[in-house]
Amino acid sequence: MRYYLIAGEASGDLHASNLMAALKQEDEGAEFRFYGGEKMAAVGGTLVKHYRELAYMGFIPVLMHLPQILRNMRQCKADIAAWKPDVVILVDYPGFNLDIAKYVHSQGICKVYYYISPKIWAWKEYRIKNIRRDVDALFSILPFEVQWFKKRGYEVCYVGNPCVDAVERWKEEKAEDIPTEKKDSIAILAGSRRQEIKDNLRMMLECAATFKGYKLVIAGAPNMDEAYYRKFIPKGLDVEIRFGQTYQVLSESVAALVTSGTATLETAILRVPQVVCYATPLGKFISWLRSKVLKVKYISLVNLIVDREIVQELVADRMTRENIIKYLGELLPGSAGREQMLKDYEEMNRVLGEAGASERAAREMVKFLKV
Prior knowledge:
Distance between the termini: 13 Å
Strand content: 15-25%
Largest sheet: 7 strands, parallel
Helix content: 40-55%
CATH architecture of the largest domain: 3-Layer(aba) Sandwich
Strand order of the largest sheet: 3-2-1-4-5-6-7
Low-confidence stretches: 282-290
Structural class: alpha/beta
CATH topology of the largest domain: Rossmann fold
Oligomer: single chain
Shape: globular
Number of strands: 13
């Protein structure tokens, strides 16, 4: 069968590549054409356009590149119509992908599947109408989404979380490098975008440095360079920066300060106690706006999955030096807070389920296509 996949950023490229590999196991005649990246290309098929040409985030960048974005959409629609796939598989990236879903459905070209749901449970809930109308099947990687969508009249299939797969695969490959002795580092994960690093890194480092006897290690984002990080490291502070080694850095760390995102989930899967840190300009205003716009109680996936506060979320005006030092201190060896968080992590991991998300998703997709 013919599979047309669309992933608009690096994480989508990773998860889509794993899905493609699993689809090849389920369907020996699988053919792929896609918008994505190097990881998808390595599996095989035709890369039509790289996600770097699609990934515009934020109001101003989108506005500045609107002609290019609209041109990409037109080209993608025409390419799908010409290739005539059996299914279009959309991977997150809702602004682009939901428009593609509408087109494919309206033209009756083929089935439309969504892998990794848009986070409409956080905001833009109105998009459920588009999904009901245009998406034939949605494959979820977050367990709480099943009930959320069901309450709104749409059945989704939970297949497990690919972060579990990624961590388990890393453990198998790096078994000899995972430390078993006493850990002496504090990991700093300050986000993957320049603005996040600018807003968060310096304060995270200054607070972590108050705990003597620990090395400070920044897990560098793959699209950043070391010079940018160095701009926000306080003078005289000895900090190591390591790229492409996030799981290794976490495995060697006693605790972590993590900017919200998938990294909070990966940190919990690796059983590293953490504090979520997300500073923003105009903190009080952003906190007020968050209470009016967001439809969820938490921003970290860890807390959302268990529907209660496992990790502290120091967001906007809550991210102060006093709070970071207080809550990080409660996670160091010998503290009751550390033991409780590790216990809570086990609950979260039970809810997530076992590895094998890509394989389960591929199996269900092929089964649905044969019906």
